Amino acid sequence: MISVVIIGYGNVAHHLVEAFHKAKNLHLKQVYTRSIKTVEHLKPITSVTNSLELLVKADVYIISVTDDAIAKVSSQITGKNSFVVHTSGSVDMNQLQNNGRKGVFYPLQSFSKEKKVDFSTIPFCLEAENNKDLQLLETLAKTIGEKIYRINSLQRKQLHIAAVFVNNFVNHMYKIGYDICNQHNVPFEVLYPLIEETSKKIQHITPDKAQTGPAKRNDNLTIENHIKMLKEEQKNIYKILTNSIKNGEKL
Amino acid sequence: MISVVIIGYGNVAHHLVEAFHKAKNLHLKQVYTRSIKTVEHLKPITSVTNSLELLVKADVYIISVTDDAIAKVSSQITGKNSFVVHTSGSVDMNQLQNNGRKGVFYPLQSFSKEKKVDFSTIPFCLEAENNKDLQLLETLAKTIGEKIYRINSLQRKQLHIAAVFVNNFVNHMYKIGYDICNQHNVPFEVLYPLIEETSKKIQHITPDKAQTGPAKRNDNLTIENHIKMLKEEQKNIYKILTNSIKNGEKL
């Protein structure tokens, strides 16, 4: 039985609380947040507090607050040998300022409070200072998840950059596609099946091999026609990405 | 009962033949291709030919050849009142050079021969010169599909550009993500759930509202850190897309 205290109650923490509450071999002992009102509904299932001085003893303290607040919050967890982890994709493990042991418990997904989360499909990227703590985090992750990875801070940083490309930038491509459709009274939903297919294809062949389209086949006539029809900023993006696809191997 | 002749035997034609063969209220009368060997296995289900002069009479002639060849092939379909359509996303209806009626029968998806196609999920973008022919195409599309749209040539051109963004350019973002993971020994599969979630999210909220990440929240410290760690070409792409997300509304 692993005992856990969750510190913070944002999107990630919200879903972790829900999942841990249902998990076996896990005792969710306490949830801390600054504004106690937001966690009052949790009282039937766990203890809640808005004072870091009143934290109870637990095997793992999971800090799930904004990136900027991680250092400060962790410095206030005083237990000498306490094991403190954060859930951030972009913060180094060593930015934790507690005196005790440190680690990272990073579920890689884009969370929103409204949407149910199925942790069995979400990769957990774990890090700790020693093998024993890493195993503890693995056991913890397995109480709610199935996909467990050991990812160190440098790798996690790179993973976060890669996530910006495959999530934020991809979403921006969707936005431009949406704008183009909208400007010409074409329902954006026409593109849903293509969008889904594109996202699934790369689970079977590498993105490099999956590429098609005018840039890939050097169809300069189509490329010129497209550029003529785009707005200034769309044009720049079209050009730089087309050239990058053409130069594929040199990246 | 609609009778159909298919001209060409590339990816799209291949899947159309398969679907039409199984469809009700549809008679696939003939398949034409230059190299007769590639269609010999179709003999049990339909007539095949490699001569445009031997085309049989049909309600609709579907030209599914490379974009460049559409004009020439269509000019050789001589029947005075023949209804000829092509399946291309980027070729104007009026590039058809037959003497008779013209139209477009464009299934919007990225096809490959190896992969089974479920036409019930694929949008058909239809165009014709008059309402009666448009209705004929709708009836035809409904024999194998469910999602039917009337899209004129100008709209289709824009749709094709939008598809370049949400398919080719999105895939290129995946490629960069893949490269970054690869360079740092992180399994790319860690990103699969995020990639899928990103592609599904925009079916519920607009891409504009779905956006998250450092550019959206103006987190310049993270942005600078990311840029430092990227290779030259990745850097340029990161910068231009980050700025574009920041300027969102001005696009």
Question: Helices and strands in order, then pairings?
Answer:
2 copies of one chain form a homodimer.
Chain A: E1 2-7, H1 11-22, E2 26-32, E3 47-49, E4 60-63, H2 70-75, E5 83-86, E6 101-107, E7 123-128, H3 131-142, E8 147-150, H4 153-183, H5 192-201, H6 207-210, H7 220-229, H8 232-246
Parallel strand pairs in A: 1-2, 1-4, 2-3, 4-5, 5-6, 7-8
Antiparallel strand pairs in A: 6-7
Helix pairs in contact in A: 7-8
Structure description:
The structure is a homodimer of 251-residue chains. Chain A is built from 8 helices and 8 strands, in the order βαβββαβββαβααααα. Chain A is an alpha/beta fold and 251 residues long. In chain A, helix 7 runs antiparallel to helix 8 (232-246). Chain A is elongated. Chain A starts with a strand and ends in a 5-residue tail after the last helix. The mean pLDDT of chain A is 94. Chains A and B meet through helix 4, helix 5, helix 6, helix 7 and helix 8 of A and helix 4, helix 5, helix 6, helix 7 and helix 8 of B.
What fraction of residues of chain A sit in β-strands? 15-25%
Derived from helix and strand composition plus strand pairing, the structural class of chain A reads alpha/beta
Number of H- or I-type helical stretches of chain A = 8
H/E element sequence of chain A: EHEEEHEEEHEHHHHH
Q: What descriptive keywords fit this protein?
A:
homodimer; 251 residues; alpha/beta; eight-stranded mixed β-sheet; 8 helices; 40% helix; 16% strand; elongated
